[in-house]
């Protein structure tokens, strides 16, 4: 179909033949092949071969008429082309300047295995309807191999569309003027009909003519046209019955494809069996009766039956299912409830659900959206009965339907006679977790206050704080996995760390009941980087883990030449006490290979057990305290900006003389404060008494505070996810610093 570059072979059959002998190749051989696939060529089909080096859109088809054409095909065979494509044309569709175009109409009913070319635009209009010898078409017999019909399973059929341009435009204009008439009426009758309509219009224009007389003349013209069509159809039928069984080639001498009528597309008296198999006359009538029954039931008080205007809305949305009540009853059209409809669920009688779980979710969503407390009195795999409050009229009954093989709403009362609620049982923590899962995935730092505001704004309900916490925990569990199950994977995670990062350390310690007690991780890159490029000073601190099982996160941080943080190691323990600090510092000392502790300096705050642990593990090291934490303890007893400024003045003193001078000034301001500071070791907080080996005179433990903010999000994750998040942050930071160093 198509012309020029738009020509294409669409929805046809392709049959392959192999091992053909070139010595016997001739037009007779082509005719035998066509007969083997079930067609006759004698005056009915035309065979065209395609030039191998050209495309079908390049005028490459050549008609096979004689042996000269087959010899030309052998010429291409001699230059290396061993494959040929032959097209069979049954209605001269390959002739240029056609007045009709082929279009595809979908869908179609299954047609019988009868082939006859459709009426072309070349039919002679001068033939008389009564001449049955000239007008009746010659039937074409379709021969299937082995008497088995060929089933192609094609869902398309070809029909004719009249052209609105070129040579067929005039005929199309004449046919459009014959609205309401039969399609194949002779030209004389058409002209007579148009003249009668023209006369009728002139008579209507005259005010003194009788309108009834004009209408009678019009009806007479229509009856004449219908009678002529009936005579023409009976003539074709008699001609067809007279020619059935004749297979000789002599009957094809006067064959003209243009005189044939395609019975497959013209449903008339000779296609009664086709019409009866594919058209249901009673269906429109039954559909109207169904609509009337629904509107009658609505008036009687069955609220679930939708009105006629609402029925069209449901039929136009979603995918539709057809479920006949019986073999004799018309098919009923149901609307399927989809998962996308959960955002705003609506129910009606006849609505089908894929399974009972989807119906339960829809009822729960409906209850929360409308703020009504719906209860499921009957809830099993075959039935669901939902009601509202005791005095409310809302009602829903659904059960499994054997016709559609789905769950169907059988009864439904839509109106509510109750008031809206502020607390709904269906508004649970799992429901909120599913609703706001993507919100928590995008913003894992959302606190409960903001979460509560979002829920109140969207649902107009006030859930409790504990419910919001459970919802947030469930959402995080879906995002990061089971928190309890991740403890079981720590052994495998440690082995993978040691395998993928040779030289790295990952230790696990269990209690007496073989439960998790503590863990330690130090990457080889952090270890080597700290020893090669950082000063011998270690900052240690501990933070709370914000998960269900709690715990403490111990960290060790160094300072690089640019005075930036350099992570060394982390550990997870149950509580922050001396045994856990000793265990952590011993692992750290072993990884760093520290034997002589005198050159090293440790800085921390005065946490529980930390001072004794540092003294035990690093006995010869200098232990400094964070002045900020010391001042917090100081101001609890001695308040005032004067004492605060004098404290920092003493800590920043660089010589012993200035230290003693500033201490005397503190004694003048407050003797009690002077006594409290005198009890402290000056080398733990005063610069004048600190060692100059680390080349660092920092008085604060801010490096640990910076690292705490750096891993703040990771502390809220389950233990395995926390280790992995911190490891990713370390590797990303080392890579960024390495790239910055190469640019310098």
Word description of this protein:
This protein starts with 26 loop residues before the first helix and ends with a helix. It has 744 residues and is of the alpha+beta class. The protein has 25 helices and 19 strands. The chain has a 7-stranded mixed sheet, with helices on both faces. Strands 8-12-11-10-9 form a 5-stranded antiparallel sheet. Strands 2-1-3 form a 3-stranded antiparallel sheet, with no helix packed on it. It is 40% helix and 14% strand. The radius of gyration is 47 Å and the shape is elongated. A hairpin with a 3-residue loop joins strand 9 (375-379) and strand 10. The chain folds into 6 domains: 4-89, no CATH class; 100-245 and 261-275, no CATH class; 283-413, no CATH class; 429-480; 486-625 and 700-739, no CATH class; 627-690, no CATH class.
Compact description:
This protein has 744 residues and is α+β, with helices and mostly antiparallel strands.
List keywords for this structure.
single chain; 744 residues; alpha+beta; seven-stranded mixed sheet; five-stranded antiparallel sheet; 25 helices
Topology:
Blueprint: H1 27-36, E1 46-50, E2 61-63, H2 67-78, E3 86-89, E4 100-105, H3 132-135, E5 157-162, H4 169-176, H5 187-205, H6 211-243, H7 272-278, H8 283-300, H9 308-316, E6 320-324, E7 331-335, E8 352-353, H10 356-370, E9 375-379, E10 383-387, E11 395-401, E12 406-413, H11 429-435, H12 437-442, H13 448-459, H14 465-480, H15 483-487, H16 490-500, E13 505-510, E14 516-522, H17 524-533, E15 537-544, E16 552-559, E17 565-573, H18 578-592, E18 601-604, H19 610-617, E19 622-625, H20 627-635, H21 641-651, H22 656-669, H23 671-678, H24 702-710, H25 719-743
Parallel strand pairs: 15-18, 18-19
Antiparallel strand pairs: 1-2, 1-3, 4-5, 6-7, 8-12, 9-10, 10-11, 11-12, 13-14, 14-17, 15-16, 16-17
């Amino acid at each position: 179909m198509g012309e020029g570059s738009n020509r294409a072979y669409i929805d046809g059959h392709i049959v392959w033949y192999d091992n053909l002998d070139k010595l016997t190749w001739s037009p007779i051989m082509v005719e035998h092949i066509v007969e083997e696939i079930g067609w006759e060529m004698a005056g009915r089909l035309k065979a065209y071969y395609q030039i191998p080096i050209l495309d079908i859109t390049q005028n490459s088809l050549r008609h096979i008429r004689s042996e000269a054409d087959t010899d030309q095909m052998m010429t291409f065979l001699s230059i290396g082309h061993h494959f040929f494509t032959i097209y069979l044309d049954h209605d001269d569709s390959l002739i240029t300047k056609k007045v009709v175009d082929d279009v595809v109409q979908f869908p179609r009913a299954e047609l019988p295995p009868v082939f006859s070319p459709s009426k072309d635009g070349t039919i002679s209009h001068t033939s008389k309807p009564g001449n049955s010898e000239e007008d009746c078409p010659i039937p074409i017999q379709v021969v299937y191999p082995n008497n088995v019909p060929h089933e192609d399973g094609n869902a398309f059929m070809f029909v004719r569309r009249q052209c609105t341009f070129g040579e067929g435009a005039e005929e199309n204009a004449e046919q459009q003027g014959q609205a309401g008439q039969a399609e194949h009426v002779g030209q004389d009758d058409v002209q007579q009909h148009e003249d009668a309509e023209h006369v009728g219009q002139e008579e209507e224009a005259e005010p003194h003519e009788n309108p009834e007389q004009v209408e009678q003349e019009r009806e007479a013209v229509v009856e004449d046209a219908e009678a002529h069509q009936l005579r023409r159809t009976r003539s074709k039928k008699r001609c067809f019955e007279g020619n059935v069984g004749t297979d000789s080639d002599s009957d094809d001498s006067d064959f003209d494809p243009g005189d044939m009528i395609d019975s497959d597309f013209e449903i008339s008296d000779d296609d009664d069996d086709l019409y009866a198999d594919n058209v249901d006359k009673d269906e429109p009538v039954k559909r109207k009766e169904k609509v009337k029954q629904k509107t009658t039931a609505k008036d009687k008080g069955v609220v679930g039956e939708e009105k006629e205007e609402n029925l069209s809305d449901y039929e136009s949305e979603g995918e539709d299912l057809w479920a006949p009540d019986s073999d004799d009853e018309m098919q009923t059209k149901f609307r399927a409830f989809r998962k996308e409809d959960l955002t705003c669920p609506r129910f009606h009688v006849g609505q089908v659900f894929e399974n009972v779980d989807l119906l339960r979710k829809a009822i729960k969503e409906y209850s929360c959206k409308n703020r009504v407390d719906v209860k499921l009195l009957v809830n099993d795999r075959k039935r669901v009965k939902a009601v509202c409050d005791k005095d409310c009229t809302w009602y829903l009954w659904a059960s499994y339907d054997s016709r559609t093989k789905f769950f169907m709403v059988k009864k439904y009362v839509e109106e509510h006679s109750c008031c809206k609620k502020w607390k709904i049982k269906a508004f649970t923590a799992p429901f909120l977790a599913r609703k706001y899962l993507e919100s928590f995935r995008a913003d894992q730092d959302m606190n409960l206050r903001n979460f509560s505001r979002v829920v109140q704004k969207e649902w107009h309900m006030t859930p409790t704080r504990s419910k919001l916490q459970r919802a947030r925990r469930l959402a995080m569990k879906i995002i990061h996995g089971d928190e309890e199950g991740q403890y079981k994977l720590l052994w495998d995670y440690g082995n993978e760390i040691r395998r993928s990062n040779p030289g790295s350390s990952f230790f696990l310690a269990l209690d007496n009941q073989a439960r998790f007690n503590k863990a330690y991780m130090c990457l080889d890159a952090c270890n080597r980087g700290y020893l090669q490029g950082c000063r011998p000073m270690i900052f240690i601190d501990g933070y709370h883990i914000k998960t269900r099982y709690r715990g403490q996160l111990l960290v060790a941080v160094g300072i690089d030449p640019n005075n930036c943080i350099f992570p060394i190691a982390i550990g997870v323990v149950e509580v922050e006490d001396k045994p856990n600090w000793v265990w952590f510092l011993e692992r750290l000392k072993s990884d760093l290979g520290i034997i002589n502790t005198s050159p090293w300096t440790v800085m921390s705050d005065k946490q529980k057990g930390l001072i004794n642990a540092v003294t035990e593990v690093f006995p010869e090291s200098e232990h400094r305290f964070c002045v900020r934490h010391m001042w917090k303890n100081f101001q609890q007893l001695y308040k005032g900006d004067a004492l605060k400024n004098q404290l920092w003045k003493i800590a920043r003193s660089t010589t012993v003389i200035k230290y003693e001078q500033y201490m005397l000034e503190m004694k003048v301001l407050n003797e009690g404060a002077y006594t409290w500071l005198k009890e402290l070791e000056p080398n733990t907080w005063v610069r004048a008494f600190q060692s100059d080996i680390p080349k660092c005179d920092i008085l604060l433990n801010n490096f640990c505070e910076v690292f705490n903010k750096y891993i703040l999000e990771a502390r809220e994750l389950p233990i395995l996810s926390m280790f992995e998040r911190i490891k990713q942050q370390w590797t990303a930071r080392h890579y960024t610093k390495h790239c910055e160093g190469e640019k310098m």
